[in-house]
Amino acid sequence: MEKTSALPPNRSISLPSRLHPTSLRAEAELNKLRVWEARLSSSSETLTAKNIQTGLVGLSEVYRCVEELVYSSLTQQALLSHGKVLEHALDHSVKLLDTCGVVRDAQRKMKEHALRLQSSLRRRGTESRFEDDLSSYIRLRKKLKKEASKCIRSLKGAERKFTLVPLSKDYHLAMVVKVLREVNLMTSLVLRSLLLFLSSQGTAIKNRHGRCSFIAKLKPKEKVKKIINEMNEVGSVDDALYHVLHGTEEIPMAHRKLENLVISIDCIEAGLDVVFRRLIQYRVSILNVLTK
User: 106 and 142 in contact (C-beta within 8 Å)?
Assistant: First the structure.
């Protein structure tokens, strides 16, 4: 499975201690996310739904602090003559909102197909129906993987262009600029992690008649148990379906893994919805400052 080691190297914020309390809270929340990022970047960590939920919760807390920071009179006074800073952050937030939309749509489709497969497994007497639904699921996975790769490349390109720098020796202004940059980059990182999660692969999933195949190649049987232990909810469904198709895994086990995937998607959706609303409010806050 692709790891998040491809994500940007750790960044840190070093700010003066005599800053607005909200800025210190924002820094603390960003540092928590940085620990989360470092853990995911390690070779021993699997990109699970629980890890994604942790990132989304942390990101939501960061936006809550940033909203308070932007609305503070001290921040608004500091930004009076530096509207370009907010305009740059506003432009980048459009890309983040667009990506949220893509991810939400991908999750909805994956959930629909997973539920359909659950229904097919319950009525396994009609084998052709199961294979048709499996083929449809595989086609969706391939399509979503391509879309995820495209979004990840786009986010990385936007990150390289987002180069806000402190504009003066004003400590508070320098802090605001750094926090705005960090929250945008961290949002991009969390979304990329989520895209990687949704495009995770199992060892193999292949129609026994050769009509449809997944991207990954089948691993030697003696390695299957070890690989399954390293998989997340998406990858484990791939292998469960493959083994059901080939009669090497019981249907109830595959059904439970599909159910677990649906539950995981529901939990991630809830967290992403909160981030989406926070991101919209973040844009509103910036627009309010710009129009004053």
Answer: no
Contacts of 241 (CB under 8 A, 6+ apart): 117, 134, 137, 205, 254
Q: Are 129 and 120 in contact (CB under 8 A)?
A: yes
223 has a pLDDT exceeding 80:
no
**Region of residue 210 (left: phi > 0; alpha: psi -120 to 50; beta: else):** left
What SS3 state is found at 7? Answer: coil
How large is the angle between the packed helices 251-290 and 171-198, nearest 10 degrees?
150
Nearest Cα to Cα of residue 179 among 7, 29, 8: 29
| Section 205-233 average pLDDT | 44
**Amino acid at site 9:** P
In sequence order, the 6+-apart residues with CB closer than 8 A to the CB of 70 are: 76, 176, 282, 285, 286, 289
- Predicted confidence at residue 168, as pLDDT, reads 59
Q: Which two tokens stand for residue 144?
A: 């979503």
Q: How many CA atoms lie within 13 A of 247 on its CB side?
A: 2
Element (H, E) at 276: helix 251-290
Q: Is 11 left (phi over 0), alpha (psi -120 to 50) or beta?
A: beta
Give the per-residue pLDDT at 121. Answer: 86
72 burial type by CB count under 10 A (0-12 exposed, 13-18 middle, 19+ buried): middle
Averaged pLDDT of the chain:
80
Q: Take residue 240 and report the two structure tokens written for it.
A: 């469960």
- Altogether, the residues listed in the chain come to a count of 292
What integer pLDDT is reported at residue 20 of this predicted model?
65
